[in-house]
């Protein structure tokens, strides 16, 4: 669902945490075919602590008529710039509820970054390239990460407490059922989770280049 | 043979026409079969090509819809309208798109929860579910999330396509549809030059024509196509069939349109149209046939005439000969078999003519029966014993009567007399044996025996008397007044050819013949015209007789009873009945020696009888009164003269 809604606002940072206790979650995500799943957003949402996520800066490049990286996870209030590395113009837009905006045809780096104040998923398109698709996960929690090519990522140094683990992937089928975790006394939890993906829908792209896959 | 024709010409004609007809029919059938076969193959090929084109057209239409739908789903200008959530704006934008798209009739936008966002066919409806969720489910299985299917709106099938609406990810579904209706059928017909019909599969498992380029369809036609479609779909074999359409035959190709078999197309071509060039040829063949037929008939008639003309002449001549005209000859100057036949015929006719001449002469010399008898057998001397009746007739005192007349006059009268007598004899199947001057000897039962010879001889004798009476009354015998006597006897005779081998005579001899002659001689004595012997009387059962006497004729030892025929049996006149009764009484009394009583009756009979019977018996009675007969009297009267 596009209209995904996060009720709480937290922020996660990889920098030194003011918290005295530090727990680690190491997580590997697979799809239903036991294949390691990259580009999966992993979020821990605290049930009690009201740690406010710190805004940050992020970049999504446009390289070779693709958004790079395709998926980013940012905290609420972060600023994202969209530098155009191609020698043609792009027209970045979003009709997502979390942040409808457009950057009409431009080249180079726009002067002002876009601020994402509301949590939710923002789907990026390009008006002149149907296949260009980018995803910005705007998190209400500071504890977020994205799986690498091995489907692996970790969230470190978060305080003790009860958390809900949430996963999100552009292709995820239905809503992910949050998993409850309890962290205490520097616990390091390793967890492998598999999620079900929807089939990929192709989108037509001029010949000679690879069409990119995406999901709704 | 079923038919019999009396005329050779008819038969010849019949066989020729039969031959021509069967030949023409064979040609006609083989040419027609080949042409129909060829036309059918050609049509089938055309239809198969047409089916390819048909599929291509439908596919292209569908593809066009897809193309356009994709443009719409990526149309950036539409996105703000879509995200505004304002129903009238969305609908208006959609209608705008639909107007650009020729051939499409509907556009619907459905959200990801199968709710209709906007629908051009029902602009005012909101909060409704999309009626074909299966279509979207099908799209979700597709790699481009696109699908197409046939759906029914009312009775019209629609080709529906669905594409995802990207904003920029799949945010909704765009459905566009076009009706597979009459205009599509007409359109395709103009391209593939075949009749196009669309049939939809109804819920009651029936097939219904939704649109067709055919001007009209009958129930019979519909049943035929239903059958063909059912066969095609369930056998998965015969996609090609032949359907009777009025006078025409439509070669029909069944082309299912969708995989679910909701709609099927029929592509059809007219066999008659394909056969049109052949029909021209057929007309030419027909004309040729009539010309050949007429020429042949004329030829046959001419030929038959040539053959039948001499045959007819032969037949005519043969009929002439059959009816006795042997002089007929055929005049045919042909060197062929018919000419030979005519020659042979003429020779035969000549032979027959000569033979007939001989026969005629013979018939004049002897009687025709004897002539036949002579001609039918080898002539040889000798004879056979037969029973026959012999009649002798004579004119009394002819020589005396002829005194004072010339020989020529006498011969003339005699010929008239003999001709008349002969007629009476021959009319009663008698055969003239010979004429002896004025006397006639005739035979009955010779040469051919029969059981009625005695009766016939009496009939002949009665006729002779009658004829003489007529001749006399008509004065055909001049001033001469003849009295004639006839004697008849039946008995065994020897019949055969008598004489020398060079000159012989078919005749009869024997005692019976002599007795007949003697009886004739007695007629004058008894004053009667006819006397028959007892043997003749016994056999001539058709007649009534008077007994005259018991006599011993000259040269005989045994007495015989003699009779006079007086009338046909059962036709005695009153006077004759009385006469017969008196006659019997006289003989009874006479033979019982009751002379007085006899005399009494004799007086009575004289009143009725003009013969000498009464006279004779009166004399005898008178004589016996003086000198009674001896004790051994056998009532007979002996004659010593001829
Ligand atoms: Cu672009």
What does this structure look like?
The complex is a heterodimer of chains A (216) and B (642). Chain A is an all-beta fold. Chain A folds into two domains: 73 residues, Carboxypeptidase-like, regulatory domain (Immunoglobulin-like), CATH 2.60.40.1120; 89 residues, Cupredoxins -  blue copper proteins (Immunoglobulin-like), CATH 2.60.40. Chain A contains no helices and 17 strands. Chain A has a five-stranded mixed sheet, with no helix packed on it. In chain A, strand 11 and strand 12 form a beta hairpin. Chain A starts with 22 loop residues before the first strand and ends in a 21-residue tail after the last strand. The N terminus and C terminus of chain A are likely disordered. Among the domains of chain B are: 106 residues, 2-Layer Sandwich (Beta-Lactamase), CATH 3.30.450.20; 92 residues, 2-Layer Sandwich (Beta-Lactamase); 182 residues, Nucleotide cyclase, GGDEF domain (Alpha-Beta Plaits); 66 residues, no CATH class. Helix content of chain B is 50%, strand content 23%. In chain B, strands 11, 12, 13, 14, 15, 16, 17, 18 and 19 form a nine-stranded mixed sheet that branches. In chain B, strands 2-1-5-4-3 form a five-stranded antiparallel sheet, sandwiched between helices. A five-stranded antiparallel sheet of chain B has the order 7-6-10-9-8, sandwiched between helices. Chain B starts with 7 loop residues before the first helix and ends with a strand. The mean pLDDT of chain B is 85. The interface between A and B is medium-sized, with 23 and 19 residues. The structure holds copper (II) ion. Copper (II) ion (CU) binds next to strand 12 of chain A. The site of copper (II) ion (CU) has 6 residues of chain A, from strand 12.
């Amino acid at each position: 669902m596009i209209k995904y809604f996060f009720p709480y606002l937290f922020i996660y940072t990889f920098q030194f945490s003011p918290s005295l206790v530090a727990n680690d979650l190491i997580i590997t995500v697979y799809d239903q075919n036991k294949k390691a799943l990259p580009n999966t957003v992993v979020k821990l949402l605290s049930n009690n602590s009201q740690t406010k996520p710190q805004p940050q800066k992020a970049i999504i490049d446009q390289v070779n008529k693709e958004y790079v990286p395709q998926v980013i996870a940012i905290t609420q209030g972060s600023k994202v710039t969209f530098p155009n590395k191609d020698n043609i113009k792009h027209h970045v837009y979003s009709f997502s509820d979390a942040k409808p905006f457009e950057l009409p045809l431009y080249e180079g780096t726009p002067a002002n970054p876009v601020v994402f104040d509301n949590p939710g998923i923002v789907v990026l398109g390009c008006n002149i390239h149907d296949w260009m698709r980018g995803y910005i996960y705007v998190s209400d929690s500071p504890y977020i990460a994205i799986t690498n090519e091995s489907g692996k990522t970790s969230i470190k140094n978060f305080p003790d407490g009860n958390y809900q683990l949430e996963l999100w992937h552009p292709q995820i089928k239905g809503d992910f059922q949050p998993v409850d975790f309890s962290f205490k006394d520097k616990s390091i939890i390793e967890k492998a989770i598999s999620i079900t993906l929807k089939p990929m829908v192709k989108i037509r792209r001029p010949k000679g280049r690879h069409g990119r896959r995406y999901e709704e | 043979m079923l038919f019999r024709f009396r005329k050779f010409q008819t038969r010849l004609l019949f066989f020729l026409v039969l031959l021509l007809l069967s030949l023409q029919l064979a040609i006609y059938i083989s040419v027609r079969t080949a042409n129909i076969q060829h036309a059918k193959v050609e049509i089938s090929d055309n239809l198969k090509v047409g089916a390819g084109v048909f599929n291509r057209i439908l596919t292209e239409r569908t593809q066009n819809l897809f193309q356009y739908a994709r443009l719409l789903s990526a149309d950036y200008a539409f996105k703000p309208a879509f995200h505004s959530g304002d129903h009238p704006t969305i609908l208006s934008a959609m209608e705008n798109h639909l107007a650009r798209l020729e051939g499409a009739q509907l556009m619907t936008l459905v959200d990801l929860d199968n709710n209709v966002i906007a629908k051009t066919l029902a602009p005012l409806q909101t909060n409704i579910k999309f009626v074909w969720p299966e279509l979207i489910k099908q799209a979700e299985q597709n790699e481009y999330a696109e699908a197409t299917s046939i759906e029914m709106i009312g009775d019209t099938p629609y080709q529906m396509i669905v594409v995802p609406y990207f904003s920029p990810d799949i945010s909704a579904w765009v459905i566009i549809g076009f009706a597979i209706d009459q205009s599509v059928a007409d359109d395709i017909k103009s391209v593939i030059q075949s009749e196009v019909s669309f049939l939809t599969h109804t819920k009651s498992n029936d097939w219904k024509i939704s649109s067709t380029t055919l001007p009209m369809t009958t129930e019979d036609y519909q049943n035929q196509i239903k059958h063909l479609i059912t066969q095609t779909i369930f056998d998965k074999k015969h996609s090609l069939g032949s359907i009777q359409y009025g006078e025409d035959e439509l070669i029909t190709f069944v082309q299912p349109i969708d995989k679910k078999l909701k709609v099927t197309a029929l592509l059809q071509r007219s066999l008659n149209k394909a056969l049109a060039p052949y029909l021209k040829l057929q007309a030419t063949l027909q004309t040729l046939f009539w010309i050949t037929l007429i020429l042949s008939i004329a030829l046959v008639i001419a030929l038959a005439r040539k053959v039948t003309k001499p045959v007819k002449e032969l037949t005519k001549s043969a009929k002439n000969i059959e009816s006795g005209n042997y002089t007929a000859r055929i005049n045919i100057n042909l060197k062929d078999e018919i000419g030979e036949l005519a020659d042979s015929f003429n020779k035969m006719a000549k032979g027959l003519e000569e033979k007939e001449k001989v026969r005629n002469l013979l018939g004049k010399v002897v009687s025709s029966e004897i002539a036949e008898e002579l001609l039918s057998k080898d002539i040889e001397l000798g004879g056979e014993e037969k029973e026959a009746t012999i009649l002798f007739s004579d004119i009394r005192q002819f020589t005396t009567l002829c005194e004072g007349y010339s020989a020529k006059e006498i011969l003339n009268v005699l010929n008239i007399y003999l001709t008349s007598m002969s007629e009476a004899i021959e009319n009663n199947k008698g055969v003239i044996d010979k004429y002896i001057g004025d006397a006639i000897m005739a035979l009955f039962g010779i040469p051919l025996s029969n059981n009625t010879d005695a009766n016939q001889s009496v009939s002949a004798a009665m006729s002779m008397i009658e004829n003489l009476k007529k001749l006399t009354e008509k004065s055909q015998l001049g001033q001469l007044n003849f009295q004639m006597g006839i004697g008849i006897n039946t008995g065994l005779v020897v019949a055969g050819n008598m004489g020398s081998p060079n000159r012989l005579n078919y005749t009869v001899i024997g005692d019976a013949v002599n007795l007949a002659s003697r009886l004739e001689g007695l007629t004058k004595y008894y004053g009667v015209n006819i006397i028959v012997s007892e043997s003749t009387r016994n056999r001539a059962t058709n007649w009534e007789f008077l007994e005259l006497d018991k006599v011993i004729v000259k040269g005989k030892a045994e007495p015989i009873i003699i009779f006079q025929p007086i009338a046909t049996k059962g036709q005695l006149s009153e006077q004759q009945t009385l006469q017969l009764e008196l006659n019997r009484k006289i003989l009874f009394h006479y033979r019982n020696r009751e002379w007085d009583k006899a005399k009494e009756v004799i007086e009575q009979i004289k009143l009725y009888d003009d013969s000498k019977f009464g006279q004779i018996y009166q004399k005898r009675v008178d004589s016996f009164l003086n000198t009674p007969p001896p004790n051994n009297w056998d009532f007979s009267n002996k004659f010593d003269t001829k």
